[in-house]
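Let's practice the habit of predicting before peeking. Look at the sequence and jot down your guess about where helices and strands might fall. Then scroll down.
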Amino acid sequence: MVAPFKRRLKRVAVRTPGGRVVFRYRREKTGKHVCALCGRPLHGVPHGRRPSEVRKLSKTEKRPERIFAGVLCGDCARKVIEIAFYVKSGAMDFSEVDIKMRPYVAAAMKRMVLA
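Done guessing? Here is the structure:
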C-alpha cells in the first residue's frame, strides 16, 4: 500500500536505466494567482512547481510594482482607483461602492493625494 502522504501527490512513471518502469510521486504544480475581484489570472506573478522556487525570486520578480499588484488585475485596479477618486472628490458616496470593492477603495483613498 502507498504511504498516506503520497496519496495526494501526482504519480509519474519513469523508466530507469535498467529498463524497469517505476512510479515516482511529485507534488502538482502550484496554480496561477487570480484576481480577488473577478477571478482572472494575474499577469506578471510567477507560479512555480513548488512555493520554494517562487520564494527564492527577488521582490520585483514576484509581482509588478504598482498599487494592488499581486492582488487585483489591471482592469479591476483601474476601476478601484477611479471609484476612489470619485469618492475622494465628492462625486460619489462611499455607501454606493460595491461591497467587494470597499476595502480596496478605502486603501486607495489613503494613498491618494488630490492636488
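How did you do? Strands lie at 10-15, 21-26.
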